C-alpha cells in the first residue's frame, strides 16, 4: 500500500484529495477510485446540495446575505439553472466525480462564476449541470 493511496495524516489526505480532484477534473477518474467514491457518495452530494440551497435562498432574498461576496444581480436570472444543479445532486441517479469536482469548485473557489465576473455565466452553470451526468 502506498502512502499516496492511503494517506495517514489530515494534511496528507487533503493534499491527496486536491491532487486527485485536479486529475479527475481532467478526465482521469479511473486512476483515483478512492476519491471517486468519496465524491459521489450521498454525504458529499447532500452537503453540496445544502450549500447550493443556501446560495439560492440568498439570491431569492429568503436569507440575509452572508460573508461570501456572491454576484447577486448577475446570478438571479440563472436561478433555474442553480436549482436544476441542486435537484440533480439530490436525485437518486449516480453523478460523475468530475461533475462533483466542478460543483465543489463552484461553491468554494474564489474564481468560480458565483464570485468572480465571467463573460459566459450561463455556459458556466449549464456546463456544471452537464458534467454531473455519468457518461454512457
What does this protein look like?
The protein is mostly helical. Helix content is about 60%, strand content about 0%. The protein contains 7 helices and no strands. The relative contact order is 0.13. The model has no long low-confidence stretch (mean pLDDT about 90).
Topology:
Layout: H1 10-25, H2 33-40, H3 42-60, H4 72-75, H5 79-90, H6 97-108, H7 121-131
Tell me the β content. under 5%
H/E series? HHHHHHH
Total number of strands: 0
Domains counted in the coordinates: how many? 1
The number of helical segments is 7
Give the low-pLDDT segments.
none
Radius of gyration: 16 Å
Features:
mainly alpha; 7 helices; globular; 0% strand; single chain; 136 residues
In short:
The protein is an all-alpha fold and 136 residues long. Helices cover 60% and strands 0% of the residues.
Amino acid at each position: 500500500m502506498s502512502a499516496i493511496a492511503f494517506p495517514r495524516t489530515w494534511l496528507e489526505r487533503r493534499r491527496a484529495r486536491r491532487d486527485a480532484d485536479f486529475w479527475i477534473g481532467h478526465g482521469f477518474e479511473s486512476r483515483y477510485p478512492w476519491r471517486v467514491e468519496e465524491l459521489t457518495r450521498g454525504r458529499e452530494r447532500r452537503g453540496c446540495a445544502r450549500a447550493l440551497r443556501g446560495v439560492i435562498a440568498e439570491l431569492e432574498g429568503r436569507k440575509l446575505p452572508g460573508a461570501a461576496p456572491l454576484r447577486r444581480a448577475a446570478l438571479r436570472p440563472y436561478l433555474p439553472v442553480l436549482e436544476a444543479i441542486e435537484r440533480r445532486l439530490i436525485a437518486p441517479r449516480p453523478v460523475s466525480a468530475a461533475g462533483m469536482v466542478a460543483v465543489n469548485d463552484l461553491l468554494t473557489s474564489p474564481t468560480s462564476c458565483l464570485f468572480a465576473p465571467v463573460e459566459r455565466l450561463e455556459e458556466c452553470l449549464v456546463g456544471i449541470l452537464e458534467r454531473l451526468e455519468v457518461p454512457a
